[in-house]
Amino acid sequence: MNLHQRLTYLSELIITLTSSPVPTQQFQALADHLPTLLPCDYLGLCLLSPDAPGYLVHSLLGEASGFIPYRLFALDEGAVGQMLGRNRTLHVSNLADFPQATADFEQILLRFGMQTAVCLPLRQGEKPLGALFIAASEHGSYGEDEIQIGRLLGAGVSAALENARLYQELIDERRTLAALLQSSQDAVLMLNEAGVVLLANPAVKQMLHLEPDLLTGQRLEEMVAYPALQQLFAAQRPDLVELAIPNGRFAQASLIPVQSEYGETIGWAALLRDITLFKELEQMKNDFVATVSHDLKNPIHAIVLAADLLGRFGELNEGQQNLQQRIVTTANYMSELVSDLLDLGQIEAGVNLRRDPVDLTLLTADVVGELGVQAGAKGVALTAVLPPDPLILIGDSGRLKQLLLNLIGNAIKYTPGGGTVTTTLLSEPTCARLTVRDSGIGIPATDLPFIFDKFYRVHTPETKEIKGTGLGLAIVHSIVEAHNGRISVTSTPIQGSTFTVTLPTHLSSNL
Amino acid sequence: MTTSELNANIQTSLSVGQPAPDFQLPSVQGTAVSLSQYRHQNSLILWFSRGITCNFCRSYMQGFENEYDNLRSHGIEVVQIAPNLLQSAQRFFTTYPPYPFVCDPEKRLYALYGLGDRGVLTAAKTAVVSFATAAREGEFGNNVRGSVLDIANRNFLRRLHHHALTAIDQGIFIIDQQGIIRYRLIIGAVEPIPGGAELLKICRAVCA
Question: What is the predicted ipTM?
Answer without folding.
Answer: 0.79
